[in-house]
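User: Hey, my collaborator sent me this sequence without any context and asked if I could get a structure. I don't really work with proteins. Can you help?
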Amino acid sequence: MPVQGICQVLFSHGMLAFKPMITLRPAETKDIEILWTLQKEAFLPLWERYHDAGNPYLRGPEDIRTRLFSPQYHCFCILDDAQIIGGILYATMTNEIEREYYLQRLFIAPERQNQGIGRKAIALCEHELADATLFSVEFPQNLEKNRTCYTKAGFKDTGRRVKTEEGIVLARFEKRIIHPCSGT
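Assistant: No problem. I've predicted the 3D structure and written it out in structure-token form, which is a compact way to encode the shape of the chain:
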């Protein structure tokens, strides 16, 4: 059963309207092809800009299949009215002190970008991954849309920067979760 997003109501000129209901559900084998297609569409502009070897645009459906069946990854479909419009993948980075989930990939159909869907999907994942003490993400530091999305989702810039082999400087953002009962 999908995790339900909060339906937001808008009042405009006395009219009642509803924003799209964004939900998540765990990805399944049947979703691989559509997720791969959406991933390619979403990451093509970054590939054209950076030409980096690690860009998800270059990865095939087997990459998604491998992550889908690995216990280290959590793969979700982002849905609007039961239609897959994107995907979100977290990697589990756990040690004895911290339960960290690294946001490895977030992609939305190009025509649906810049509508707050990524931020909503992140919030829904945080509900699904409720044992987390830390969420983290890295992205090219000059991508203002990414910075805005993650900041609005509650992530903070750590100030850490990592330079890739291709010379891309990645910014690391984190969101620490305090669990009131455990103190972590």
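In plain terms: The chain has a mean pLDDT of 90. You can pass these tokens on to your collaborator as they are.
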